[in-house]
Amino acid sequence: MALPKDIKWVTFDVYGTLIDWETGAYNAFEAEAKRDGFTIERDQVVDMFVSIQQEIQAGSYELYAEVLRRTAVRIAKDLGWPLEPSRSGFLPDSVQRWPAFREANPTLARFAKQFRTGLISNIDDKLLGQTRRHIPLDFDLVVTAQQVRSYKPDPAHFTECERRIGGKKGWVHVASSYYYDVEPCLKKKIPVVWVNRNKVELEAGQKKPDAEVSTLREAAKLLGIN
Fold first, then answer.
1. Mean pLDDT across the chain
2. Choosing from 13, 20, 154, 210, which is the catalytic residue?
């Protein structure tokens, strides 16, 4: 499916696309573990974070702050780090400090001059409010997991976004996660640009997105923004 020629709406995933959650989450784990004299490796923590979170989110819906607390407890247990569950709030508390990618705000400002913009995120409203201090653009639309009471890759976010926009015509989604965003967009026939920052290679049988770029700036250029 080709990208639309007459684009009116561009929506963005938040964490991984606009916000560097890997750095933010790892810094939080590193600081908390250091209190116990425990050393952790970034790549290991990030990989565990991704797999454990996917497992938790596949269950019944709960606020993302609780998903993060449970993720912290599971990671600590698997690492052999004796973290008391009562301290697991360090992870949701850290979201307010997760940084935006340096290119995010300048590029978002350029998008907003040409298109209507929105956020589609696996987050709760409170934590997203904290994050938006780092991305202060006045978005035209925001859909969170709390609003639809489910987590991507379940299609509820995209179904709700389609309802609010009034259809899929002229809409492009921009996201960094193949699992959470690209795959459900392909299933719903929503044009999607994959911001493949980590140069992930698709496995056999995985469908290619409508377009693939390495940065948000490349996505902007692709969609005709000067």
1. 97
2. 13
